[in-house]
Amino acid sequence: VFSQILGRENVLEHHSNFENPFTTQEETLKLKIAQENWHEPVIVTTNVQFFETLFSHKASKVRKLHNIANSIIILDEVQSIPNKYIEPCMCALNELVVNYGCTVVLCSATQPEFDKNNIFKETVKIQEIIDDTNKLFKALRRTTEHYIGDKDINEIASQIKGQNQVLCIVNTKRHARDIYDLLSKEDNVFHLSTNMYPLHRQETLKKIRELLLAGLPCKVISTQLIEAGVDIDFPVVYRAMAGIDSIVQAAGRCNREGKLETGHVYVFRPEEKYIGKEYLALTAELGRMIVEATPRFLDLSSISQYFYNLFGAGTNLD
Question: In this structure, are residues 161 and 189 in contact, taking their beta carbons and an 8 Å threshold?
Fold first, then answer.
């Protein structure tokens, strides 16, 4: 999309899903050098690639380091930076702003408020781009949330069977597979996880979009991979207990295009073996505390409280 607007010659893609479009050795070499140097005006990359440039000791990685100076850095879905890397990542961004002329834009529907949670170690000027976040949040609200308590796989499968078009997002691949197995004899039931090749996932998503557009029955059981970067619209979404950021991202797949008066998001607590381990278990527990305490757990105040609890929960941020 950026290339269509700004011109292919102005945009460099550098990420793991990028497929080299060139056929000649000369063009491929030119691309490799461009990816090592980042000379182009616009670079489309990933968090991993970007932060590896700042922290790596390999010459091929740091060869582009000087080109980050005096740039605008836009981090989309900033809440997805793993907790154990947050402090060094934010310290690096802080340094780029204070001493290297950079401007950083942190984008997220679930803003972690790093400044309010004292993650930035130096004072930098932090400014909210949106004039009135509460007003915007209310204007863009397209879903109603429901907490339906403890549900085992049979109960969830039964509820999914009763829906025409429904998406169920869970924390583990095992949970996704077990629910899918209970529904596999139904028509138009799909499974999505990172056990599939990217091309296979793309083909499956294409079929899903066609069924949704046609108004035909479509039931999808997926891991978190569908929560970010996948433009898809269901009238009903089920979400296994998780952090509030993940629940909000799941809600972003519900009534996404605003065609309904409201979509419905159902959050449930699965059996213990499906919750996930370590970080997943921690975020699910913090999410449960908020979901059980307030019926409007998709509101900004819930997101803010969640990250306050997360960053203060004795987790290692470095």
Answer: no
CA distance 303 to 68: 31
Look up residue 129 and give its two tokens.
């781009």
Identity of the residue numbered 250: A
Amino acid 158: pLDDT: 94
How far apart are alpha carbons 262 and 164 in whole angstroms? 16
Cα separation, 52 vs 228, in Å, equals: 21
Tokens, residue 121:
């170690």
- Packing angle of the helix pair 47-55, 86-99 (nearest 10 deg): 70
pLDDT 10s digits, 22-51: 778 887 788 888 888 898 899 999 888 899
Count of CB atoms situated within 10 Å of the CB of 124: 15
Distance from C-alpha of 10 to C-alpha of 281, rounded to nearest angstrom:
43
For the chain, give me the number of helices (H) and strands (E)? 12, 10
Count Cβ atoms below 10 Å from residue 15 Cβ, excluding itself. 14
> Token match 């990420």: residue?
15
Q: How many CA atoms lie within 13 A of 284 on its CB side?
A: 21
Residue 220 burial (C-beta neighbours within 10 Å; 0-12, 13-18, 19+)? buried
Round to whole Å and give the CA distance between 315 and 279. Answer: 9
The secondary structure of residue 109, as a DSSP letter, is S
User: Which pTM does this prediction carry?
Assistant: 0.84
- Determine how many CB atoms are found less than 10 A away from the CB of residue 256: 16
Q: Are 67 and 37 in contact (CB under 8 A)?
A: yes
Q: Which among 154, 246, 166, 279 is positioned nearest to 212, based on CA atoms?
A: 166
One-letter amino acid of 11 = V
Q: Which amino acid is at 254?
A: C
